[in-house]
Every structure is written in C-alpha cells, then in structure tokens.
Amino acid sequence: MSENTSAFYDIIIVGGGPIGLACALEAKQANLKYLILEKGCLVNSLYNYPQNMTFFSSSERLEIGDIPFVTTNPKPKRMEALEYYRRIQQKFELDTHLFEEVLDIKKNDNNFLVESNKRSYTAKKVIIATGFYDIPMLLDIPGEGLNKVRHYYNDPHYYSGQKVIVVGASNSSIDAALETFRKGAKVTLVIRGNEISPRVKYWVKPDIENRIAAGEIDVLYNSALTSITETNATIQTPTGIIEIENDFVLALTGYRPNFAFLRKIGIDIPNQAPCIPHHNEQTMETNIEGLYLAGVVCGGLNTHLWFIENSRIHAQQIIGHIQSTWD
Ligand SMILES: Cc1cc2nc3c(=O)[nH]c(=O)nc-3n(C[C@H](O)[C@H](O)[C@H](O)COP(=O)(O)OP(=O)(O)OC[C@H]3O[C@@H](n4cnc5c(N)ncnc54)[C@H](O)[C@@H]3O)c2cc1C
Fold this sequence. Notes:
Blueprint (H helix, E strand, L loop, with lengths): L5 E9 L3 H12 L4 E4 L6 H4 L30 H14 L4 E2 L4 E7 L2 E6 L3 E9 L6 E2 L12 E2 L12 E5 L3 H12 L3 E5 L14 H9 L4 E3 L3 E5 L3 E6 L2 E6 L2 E4 L3 E2 L2 H6 L26 E3 L14 H4 L2 H12 L2
Parallel strand pairs: 1-2, 1-6, 2-3, 6-17, 8-15, 9-10, 9-15, 10-11
Antiparallel strand pairs: 4-5, 5-6, 7-16, 12-13, 13-14
Helix pairs in contact: 1-8
This protein binds flavin-adenine dinucleotide.
C-alpha cells in the first residue's frame, strides 16, 4: 500500500501487545478483516522489560487463543514470552503493521478514521490495547532529567562497581536491586512505605529480605528522594535529610496509560485517581459506540488490577459483542 492511502477494515486494533494479539486471533477466527497497528516492535512492552525478567505468572496463564505456551521453567522468562507471542503472530499470519503509531482516531457517521504516522485507515470498530508501559511515573524532583536517572532498567552489568539508588518496593525495583547488587553495585533501596511490597514474587521476597538483614543492600524505609546531582542524592528520611554519594538512580516507580491520547480520541476519563477510562465491563465498549478498550489500559492508574492472565478474556468479550451487533 502506498503512503497516505485509506484502507477499510472491520476492526483496527491499536497496540501489538499480548492482548492486541489475542484480539486479532479472535477477530481472525470470526472472519473479520482486522489490522494491528503497533508503534514499536511486536510485543513492544515485553521487549523493553529487563533482559533477565521472569514472569510472576506460570506460562499457561499467559496463553492466548488456547495455544500452549511450553516451557520447562516453573515461570517463563521474557525471552520465552517473546518467542511465544512472535510464533503466534507468524503462525497465524496476524495482519500487523509494526513501527506505525496511531496519532488520532475520529468517528464519522458509523465509521472510524484512524490516522497513523504513516497512513490513514477507515474501520467499523476500533480496539485500544495500548497498555501502560510507555509513560513512567515521575519523581518530579530537581535532577530527574539527568542522564544518570533511569525509569527503565535493562541489564545489571552496566551498573557494576557503581553506587546505585533504586527507588520503589515492587517487583521491578526489587529485581533491579538484587541483580545489580549481584553484579557488584553498591545498592541503596529508597522506599516510600515501611515494607517491601507484599506483591513481590514469593520466591524473590525472602532473597531481598535476607540481603537487607545481612547488610548487603541498604534500605531506607519511609523515605523519598528530594534532589539528585551528578555526584550525589538527597533523601528525606524519618530522622531528617541525608545526602549520599550516587552514580545512578533507577526510579522504578511505575507507569501509567497515555491519558492524553485516550482523551484526545474522546474516551471519558475521570480527573480523580484511579482515572479508569469509561468502559462497560461486560462488552469493554467505551462511551463511544464501536470503540473498545482491551488489556491493562482498562485499569487507569490501577496498574495492578489487570494482567495478561486476567485481561486476555477481553478479546472474547469484545469480538463476541461486535459479532452480536454486526449489521
Ligand atoms: C515488569 C512487568 C512484569 C509483568 N509481569 C506479568 C506477569 O508475570 N503476568 C501477567 O499476567 N502480567 C504481567 N505484567 C503485566 C502485563 O503483562 C503487561 O502489562 C502486558 O504487557 C499487558 O499487555 P497489553 O497487551 O494490555 O499491553 P502492552 O503489552 O503494554 O501492549 C501495548 C502495546 O501498545 C503499543 N502502543 C501504545 N500506544 C500506541 C499507539 N498510539 N499506536 C500504536 N501502538 C501503540 C505499545 O508499544 C505496546 O506494544 C507485567 C508488567 C510489567 C511492567
């Protein structure tokens, strides 16, 4: 197809994550003409997870379209998940345009006009499965813009021999603290509350607790970073403000959906937290008829509400509703 031509689809799926793929599988099975538009690579969020990341879900809970996810590990690794979802996209020849970002969606009469950075499309229905991993929650403190401050963590080797502050108490922070410690970083965990999150993977929690008890990883509970410079970091603690030497800050304080995009395309979102985008929980249809939400984007700021394992069902709910209302 040449640039800027408008093609017609029954369904455009925005986002090529696990749930966007699940929607495509259902649409294909229902003989609907669909297209996935994904702004990055296939399963872009998973690709950008830490390299050695292990899922908390067992593999059968990450399955889509009843296709077995086989692994010999008790919990699958990121690399295996990339293999699994890529094989599904290839095997079922799911129609996918990668590195194509949807910029706007407008409803004209009964159809949607979908504008990407490359082309425009017309579709009868649109499914938004854009996740929440593109926008980090910021600390909003001086120095956050320095290159040494990272909101995504990839690989521990990079931090070997460095003084690293890890902010947060959830899975991402604890994984990063343990991995970088094991590659020779001097790690200080800065935690807003008074404990390691109870949601930390059950086989990882004793590990971090033992490293803290042994004095191998420092922890400051009930504390928050207040400023960062090239060489130091200032932290508000229960006993006052302290300043420590610091090379890197891993601010793994969570992510949030792209509310600006969702509002721009007309989805109602309350201003008050948890800012859950308006949708019918049975059909997943938003306040705009024919425009659906799928996957973890549905939770707004409640990013612990939806996972692959409990949101893959959205695909069946949406395609079932589309079929029941097809004219
Ligand atoms: C570190 C981590 C570990 C997790 N572990 C588990 C686990 O063990 N088990 C579990 O069930 N869940 C887990 N989750 C939660 C869940 O798996 C993920 O959030 C999952 O990726 C959600 O799938 P999704 O398809 O809804 O969204 P995503 O996978 O985030 O997919 C959304 C896609 O939309 C694309 N996109 C966004 N905006 C646009 C646009 N405008 N145009 C085109 N494309 C766009 C993005 O690039 C992305 O590829 C984890 C999450 C994180 C962050």
